[in-house]
Every structure is written in structure tokens, then in C-alpha cells.
Design a protein that fits this description.
Number of strands: 12
Distance between the termini: 35 Å
Helix content: 25-40%
Radius of gyration: 21 Å
Number of helices: 6
Order of helices and strands: EEHHHEEEHHEEEEEEEH
Strand content: 25-35%
Strand order of the largest sheet: 2-1-7-10-11
Length: 275
């Protein structure tokens, strides 16, 4: 089943493209927002919604880790890689999903959602299993699974910055967690976090080269706290999309960091060069 058939809305980034004219005025172009599903909604059937998402996640893991196919979920978790943040966050999301999935299969009455809060508690072979997640944490949890499965944000630093923010929102909304592996899920590194939900892509910012740094020159940067800004640049024929969060003071960044860390590599955020 395609994600579009699930009838699920997720909080993908809302992308707004901005261009500047010669007099310094700005134009905000059409926004982009990915809403998964328009045909059939299953938002009122949380168990079915979760089982569909878990099936997609499990298939994604089997497809990318052929040696794990056909093994138990506990075996998969133990053997999934976790060296970098991309793998670590996926592994821990699978761990959370495993606890919820097993509750629905082996003890369905233990799966409860009240006012958007998910509360799962059950015992199996003398071990307590469970997770309590706030409504916001649960929403972000679904969003993170879709982002991994669809893969249209790539696997580079842009995706990692978005996912670190979403993952920490998930973790901060979990008030209880227990399984055979111990306490709360592991957290990623303290690497760059990018505001995930609304971002403006500045398509033609003015910039200057200062020694081995690039400095962005803009007269207006009054974005609300929850909104992020990205700058689209071209340098040495390379397309570069760098978030404001990656810049130092006065919107400066080392040229080597631009080329090494922020080459544009995926279909999202979309780059609309015909504005």
C-alpha cells in the first residue's frame, strides 16, 4: 500500500520560497506542504494506523538490512547499526515501535489512546513493557517514520538536522518506557538541530566572500521563533542549501563547510529555480 492511500497527515516541513528584488523587497512564493493521504482517512482508528506504519517501517528495515529479514523484532533491534545518528535514531524508533506493535498483537486491550496520549502497558515473560507518549510526541513519532520510509529528504546533514529536532521532541514527550533492553531510548549526538516545520528558502540572497568564509547579506531576518530559514547558493557549479542554524555570527560560514556539508542532494526541500 502506498503512503498516499493510508489517509494520514504528517507534519512535513512547509517550504516557502523567497526572492529579493533590487530595492530589497521580498516576495514569498507558493508554499509546499506534504500531506500524506487524501483518499481514505484512518485517523479515527489508531491501532490500524499504527499497524500500517509498523508494516512499512519493518519492510524498510528488511529492504535495507537483508541479513535481518525473517528474524525476530528483538534480534533486529540488537543487530541494527547505531554508529551514526541516522542509524541510531532509526534503531530507537524501531525499538519504540516494537513495544507498541507487540501490545496490539499479543495484548490489544493494553493499547489505549486518551485525548491523543498513547498509553501502553503489558507484561510478557516476567518483563514489563510499555510506553506513554504525549499527543505531540505521538504525532512526531509518526512523522519520523514516514520521513525515514519516504527518504525524500535524503540522508545528509539537512535530514539529520530536521530529524534530531523531531526525535528529541518525541523523546521529551515520553514519560514512561520499559522493555527488555532497559530504560528510555538512546538519544543522538548533540549535532546541529534544524527547526523542522516551517522553513523559508531564500533563493537569491546576496553574499560576499571574505577570506575563506561566505557571509550572507540580508536586510530582513525577522522570522518567528518557530520558523527556520535556508539559503540557496551556487559555488563552483555546486548547488548548496544551507540552513541558518549552520551559520556563525553575522551569518558567516567557512567555504569548506559549505562544500563538505551542505550540497543539495534530494528532492526536498524543493529548489524552484524558475521563480
Amino acid at each position: 500500500m502506498m503512503l498516499e492511500d493510508i489517509g494520514m497527515s504528517v507534519r512535513y516541513p512547509d517550504i516557502r520560497h523567497v526572492t529579493f528584488s533590487g530595492d530589497g523587497s521580498r516576495t514569498v512564493h507558493m508554499s509546499f506542504q506534504d500531506i500524506i493521504g487524501t483518499r481514505v482517512s484512518i485517523e479515527q482508528n489508531q491501532p490500524m494506523k499504527f499497524m500500517m506504519m509498523f508494516t512499512l517501517l519493518d519492510f524498510y528495515i528488511d529492504s535495507n538490512h537483508a541479513g535481518l529479514e525473517g528474524n525476530s523484532f528483538a534480534h533486529k533491534y540488537r543487530n541494527l547499526p547505531s554508529e551514526g545518528d541516522y542509524d541510531l535514531m532509526l534503531r530507537e524508533l524501531f525499538r519504540i515501535a516494537k513495544v507498541i506493535r507487540n501490545s496490539l498483537v499479543h495484548n490489544p486491550s493494553s493499547f489505549r489512546v486518551h485525548d491523543g496520549v498513547l498509553d501502553v502497558r503489558y507484561e510478557f515473560k516476567g518483563t514489563d513493557f510499555g510506553v506513554t507518549m504525549s499527543a505531540d510526541s505521538l504525532s512526531n513519532f509518526y512523522t519520523s517514520l514516514v520521513m525515514y520510509v519516504k527518504g525524500d529528504l535524503g540522508q545528509g546533514n539537512y535530514f539529520l538536522g530536521i530529524m534530531r529536532s523531531i526525535y528529541m521532541s518525541i523523546a521529551n514527550g515520553i514519560s514512561y518506557f520499559s522493555d527488555e533492553f532497559g530504560g528510555l531510548p538512546n538519544t543522538p549526538s548533540s549535532g546541529l538541530k534544524i527547526k523542522p516545520y516551517v522553513r523559508e528558502v531564500f533563493m537569491n540572497p546576496e553574499y560576499v566572500l571574505k577570506d575563506d568564509h561566505v557571509q550572507i547579506n540580508i536586510t530582513e531576518r525577522n522570522a518567528p521563533e518557530w520558523q527556520g530559514i535556508d539559503f540557496y547558493l551556487e559555488h563552483n557549479r555546486e548547488k548548496i542549501l544551507v540552513p541558518e542554524e549552520a551559520f556563525g555570527p553575522e551569518l558567516t560560514i567557512h567555504i569548506a563547510d559549505l562544500l563538505n556539508d551542505w550540497k543539495y542532494e534530494s528532492s526536498l526541500p524543493p529548489i524552484r529555480q524558475n521563480l
